Amino acid sequence: MSERTYVDIEAELTDQPINFDEDICLAENVVYVKPQTLIDIPMHYCPGCGHSTAHKILMEVVDEMGIQEEIIGVAPVGCSVFAYHYMNVDMQEAAHGRACAVATGIKRIMPEKYVFTYQGDGDLAAIGTAETVHAANRGENILVVFINNGIYGMTSGQMAPTTLPGMVTTTSPYGRDVKTQGHPLYISNLLANLPGVAYVSRHSVHTPNNVRKAKKSLAKALEYQKQGLGFCLVEIVTNCPSNWKMTPKQSNQFVEEKMIPFYPLGDIKVPEGK
Amino acid sequence: MAKVMGEIIIDIERCKGCELCFDACPKEAIQLSDTINSKGYQFAIKVNDLCNGCASCALVCPDAVITVYRKVDKAKRPVKVIEIED
């Protein structure tokens, strides 16, 4: 398919006139292009999934900082288990929930490298709570990218620790009842109280502005890692259209109306004097 | 004011038709096509010439299928003509 251009396919498929200005489409006029570090293959994520956007901005940051050779990622178990297929950096797969423990080992052996883990809420906040809390408490100098969609996406939408009260999932068909199933876990706020943690910030990727903010935050966290300030966590509140049983647009609306009031965006902890 | 011209190129074979770019576009320049790509998704197409290359669509696009170009055309700057009476 790569030989056929956009213009050819458009011409074949539609009878509409093609408004394709070749004077503008020149290399010097490029404003936005897919990051080089993101491997050019189709992603397996559902249409509209926030994981892909998070992958994209993380790789943009790597591109902009020029640290492709110096960064090592740890992939989790969950929807993003194939993160190593898409990110063209050194990656290591960890057992379910143990990404922070693996990242600790990598960072201690190679302290000059940047190390990040990319984990979902089922991985980081449920099965991997102990590893995450202790890595944070030890003040390991790693970046944790925490994708919070309030559900176990990969296994078809069971209730996760971060599920909102009253939210319907396959294992809470009448909505999460906090009396029997407990309250949602504010893992970022919990970790922010630990002395080893340098930077905790919560963002979302459902609007262009929020994408820009999340990207800046990731760049900041990697900069803090370079300075050796300690454990950095960037939480990204995303959607899960398939398992929330919504269209991508509706799921983004749900993020805006329900998730963000519950998980307010912004910096939770910043290093002193920054 | 210089005229800003934008252009987007959408990789329609990779587009999954999630429609997130429609809401992000301030000029409503993107719509869903009538046809489908080889994966069976209706894909996004550009429907008007109002694009100013703000790259909002590309930022929210999960699959990074949109490439954005922007050109500031200084030659098209409107010139105010002052007529001097003798």
Give a written overview of the molecule.
The complex is a heterodimer of chains A (about 270) and B (about 90). With about 270 residues, chain A is α/β, with parallel strands linked by helices. Chain A has one domain: Thiamin diphosphate (ThDP)-binding fold, Pyr/PP domains (Rossmann fold, 3-Layer(aba) Sandwich), CATH 3.40.50. Chain A contains ten helices and eight strands. Chain A has a seven-stranded mixed β-sheet, with helices on both faces. The longest helix of chain A is centred in the last third of the chain and has 20 residues, at about 210-225. The model of chain A has no long low-confidence stretch (mean pLDDT about 90). By secondary structure, chain B is mainly β. Chain B has a two-stranded antiparallel ribbon with strand order 1-4. Chain B has helices spanning about 20-25, 55-60, and strands spanning about 5-10, 30-35, 40-45, 65-75. The mean pLDDT of chain B is about 85. Chain B has one domain (about 5-75): Alpha-Beta Plaits, CATH 3.30.70. The interface of A and B includes residues 32 and 205 of A. β1 of chain A pairs antiparallel with β4 (about 65-75) of chain B, so a sheet runs across the interface.
